[in-house]
């Protein structure tokens, strides 16, 4: 099917990176907050790379007041969650797969593996399959996250299992990580943010059910 007249190519990024010297004072404050926070210490992250900010941060610069709130919320969700890093990253890649967000998957699949996630679990999620082998905790996070994205709620049984294992704070943190990375996925997908180094998309297309 031909593309509608005037539609940009899929590879064309919509929000062009802003050179550091062109940032407004408000944008500069946001960029400095991102780079001086915990993200700046993550090797290879968009916050750690020199030059203009990349990833979703480049888009958030367009509304620096909102961007400051989003980045602060994200730092809390990602680096101070009550959930162990492996489970937090598992929820993130489930969200990335739900949104077919290539950039988010590329960034967080690596972090999930570094946190100890079995590569077979990531492979199954990437292909839209329920992982064959998960721990009890991984199973709770998987079902809670999938139900939340697919049904916009969770069943009583799924909620109770998460509550019994992680407590009320853990349930709230699990809701938050899924919701926050849904916003990140929206940002990246609307922007058509290219993968670093022109890497090929890691997620295969899923067959429609």
Descriptors for this entry?
single chain, 209 residues, mainly alpha, AhpD-like, 8 helices, 58% helix, globular, disordered N terminus
What can be said about this structure in brief?
The chain has 209 residues and is mainly α.
What would you note in describing this structure?
The chain has 209 residues and is mostly helical. The chain folds into two domains: 56 residues, no CATH class; 110 residues, Up-down Bundle (AhpD-like). It is 58% helix and 0% strand. The longest helix is centred in the last third of the chain and has 36 residues. The N terminus is likely disordered.
The ordered H/E elements are HHHHHHHH
The H-level CATH homologous superfamily of the largest domain, spelled out, is: AhpD-like
- What value does the average pLDDT take? 93
**Low-confidence parts lasting 5 or more residues at pLDDT below 50?**
1-9
Helix content: 55-70%
Cα shape:
globular
What structural category characterises the helix and strand content?
Answer: mainly alpha
CATH architect. name of the largest domain: Up-down Bundle
Specify the biggest β-sheet. none
First-to-last CA distance: 22 Å
Class of the largest domain in CATH?
Mainly Alpha
Which strand-content bin applies to the residues?
under 5%
Total domain count: 2
